[in-house]
Amino acid sequence: MSDAWSVDEDIEENRHNWSEKAQHRPPRDGASRSDAPKVIDLFCGPGGLSQGLEQAGFESVLGVDIHEPSIETFQRNHPHAHAILGDIREINKRADDDRDIFDVIDDERVDVDTLLGTVAEDALSGEELAVLTAGIPCQGFSIANRKQHDEDERNYLFEEFVRAVKILEPRFVLVENVSTMKAAKDGEFVEAVVECLQRLGYATDYRVLSAEEYGVPQKRKRLFFMGARNGHPLTWPKPTHADDPRTISEALSDLPAVDAGEQTERYDSEPLSAFAESMRETPAGADIEDGRLHNHEAPNHRQTTVDRVKNTEPGEPMYDRFRQRIRLHPDQPGPTIIAGGIRPQFQYGHPEQSRGLTVRERARIQSFPDHYVFEGGVVQGRVQTGMAVPPLLAQRLGEAIATNYRAKPFREKLLEWGEENRREFPWRTPDCSPYEVFVAQMLLQRALPENAEPVYRDFTDRYPDFGTLKGASEDELAEILRPLEPNDEYAKAFRKIASKLVFSGIPDSEEKLLDLPHVERYVANATLCFGFGRRRPVVDENVARLYARVFDLNVEDGHLDDEYLWDFAGSLLPEDDFERYSMALLDHAAEICTATSPDCDRCPVSDECDCYE
Predict the structure, then answer these.
(1) Paired residues of 126 in beta bridges
(2) What is the DSSP letter of 182?
(3) Over 70: is that where the pLDDT of 308 sits?
(4) CB neighbours (10 Å) of residue 515?
(5) What's the alpha-carbon Rg for the chain, to the nearest Å?
(6) Coil, helix or strand for 508?
(7) Where do the domains of the chain lie, and which CATH numbers do they carry?
(8) Cα dist from 416 to 151, 469, 539, 588, whole Å
């Protein structure tokens, strides 16, 4: 008997995967001509990435997949989109093209005369492709796959995505896979994806994101790659529910109870949570009839299975051998919803009812809205909901990409404004030493530049280095610092700093700078940026306010301690002009985007500003 758990066994085939010649399926309702930026979704599955990006203001115009029920679902819910059903290895290149992927990248020619290129041209109708996405099949990487091994041929399907990038030249790319891809083949796959995208001209970054931190009621970690060309920065979304993840009860409590083998198409209660209410919202034009509830059919269990679920405590395993198959706990996020192979099995038990989950309940846990209909029946509905990217997580990624769109002109306009409106201070001269920059930034923590300048000149004239500063008394320092408050406290801080650094000089790392008395993150990074020429974000109260206004950042009240703010600020830094940009940012935030009376009429970035709108 063969061992299904052996990596030497062939991968299980899904009879619903298309094995014939690739097939183009035109839009069901005619192609849309909206002004929304356009998305093409490769390995689209049922369309979780597309749905989330559309919720963020994009429009999906083409989905590609080999799984026929997924294509049916994709077009049911995206009726204005084209679809291609077939193996991407056939639609993406000529039959005789056996070149190495790096040869494809380096070739100046572009093979647009492929089925993908032809359909994409029709779908885009002359418009630019904003985002090319791919939920690359993850079975070869996933720890949930008992046949996981590095040489699984599906591990190399990312090369077909790279070919598609070469053909379609999107402005942004977004790739999703399981988090264990980072470790596969000792990280070679991740390195290969990054290298390929960079050679195609894309700045590239990757991160593991946890779905429950973005409002999805499910513990699901996924690896995402994001790439941008033409100088666009790369920012990532800020978690919205890091400290208060949504629970299974919030996701499912309003759905009608059904016994094993039963189904219903009607709600029998009002939404019982904000999440449930959002899932019931029906956008204009959605394909839904009179509030009908779709895909809410319970598995047709045998009585032994019903009893097994009934006798299992919520949060506990239902089977000794398969301990990952638990009965869900109502007060916790759910575990990762998985596709479950092609057999008619269920993974999780309902927290209150003695049965497995309906496709609609699985869809809720994945954050698919209720108007999203899954084609192909219960088993294929399980497959689709398990392979999908949670739309709510995809929406947050889409919002970050939309921010990246606006961040490029923001950066360019700010640099241009800074050239014409640069404020001159003695600590901004090209020959300013790290020591002089550090002293200036310490003073600027408690004073406006105009007030700090005379103190700075007097201070650096008397104490041009740490050797002379160490010889100063606290009273002498306090006298020089008298115009600034609290001068006594700062005199003590400078004395301690001088004693510590007299033989070593200013540290050139953020960690060591932050160890010094009264040195906050702004001082540390400003010293590194302006004193050492390091590409580091410089964020004070004014800059934090500017970023929050322009990009509608959801930062904490004590925003200078908000890690996401610093991450965001670092993402917006230009590669080469980061010093000029940081100076322009500081000047604009202090002079134009003031706290009480921002001069929006003179603001060069008002067109990009959410606050101004």
Answers:
(1) none
(2) G
(3) yes
(4) 12
(5) 29
(6) coil
(7) 23-201 (3.40.50.150), 247-376 (3.90.120.10), 406-608 (1.10.340.30)
(8) 51, 39, 20, 11
- pLDDT at residue 122 tops 60: yes
Please report the DSSP string for 240-285 in residue order.
SSSSS---HHHHHTTSPP--TT-B-SS--S---SHHHHHHH---TT
Q: How far is CA 385 from CA 153, 337, 353, 364, 373, in A?
A: 23, 7, 21, 9, 11
In the DSSP assignment, the letter for residue 128 is P
Summarised one tens digit per residue, pLDDT across range 56-88 is: 999 999 999 999 999 999 999 999 999 999 998
Provide CB contacts within 8 A for 473, sequence distance 6+.
none
If pLDDT is split at 50, 70 and 90, which confidence band does 187 have?
confident
H helical segments located in 257-370: 274-280, 303-310, 359-365
Q: How many CA atoms lie within 13 A of 365 on its CB side?
A: 28
Beta carbons of 418 and 584 less than 8 angstroms apart: yes
DSSP 221: E
Q: Which helix (H) or strand (E) holds 39?
A: strand 38-42
Pair of tokens at residue 182: 């980072």
DSSP 327: B
- Please state the length of the chain: 613
- 3-state DSSP assignment of residue 430: coil
pLDDT for position 347: 87
Decide: 50 and 41 in contact? Cβ < 8 Å. yes
Q: What mean pLDDT do residues 248-273 have?
A: 95
How many Å apart are CA 376 and CA 15, to the nearest integer? 12
pLDDT value at 494 more than 60: yes
- pLDDT by residue (tens digit) across 426-469? 999 999 999 999 999 999 987 889 999 999 999 999 999 999 99
Residue-wise pLDDT tens digits, 390-417: 999 999 999 999 999 999 999 999 999 9
CA distance 461 to 466: 12
The DSSP 8-state label assigned to residue 346 in this structure reads: -
245: helix, strand or coil: coil
Label each residue of 510-567 as H, E or C: HHHHHCCCCCCHHHHHHHHHHHHCCCCCCCCHHHHHHHHHHHCCCCCCCHHHCHHHHH
CB atoms within 10 A of CB 485: 11
Residue with the two structure tokens 């790319």:
173
Residue 16 has pLDDT above 70, yes or no: yes
- pLDDT, average across residues 151-170: 77
| pLDDT (tens digit per residue) in 521-558 | 999 999 999 999 999 999 999 999 999 999 988 776 55
- Alpha-carbon distance of 445 to 19, in angstroms, equals 67
Cis before 486 (ω within 30): yes
Other Cβ atoms closer than 10 A to 256: 16
- At residue 111, the 3 state secondary structure works out as coil
Please return the burial class of 191, using the count of CB atoms within 10 Å of its CB with bins 0-12, 13-18 and 19+: exposed
Phi, psi of 207 (to 5 degrees): -150, 155
pTM, to two decimals:
0.90
Q: Is 274 exposed, middle or buried (0-12, 13-18, 19+ CB in 10 A)?
A: exposed
3-state secondary structure of 174: strand
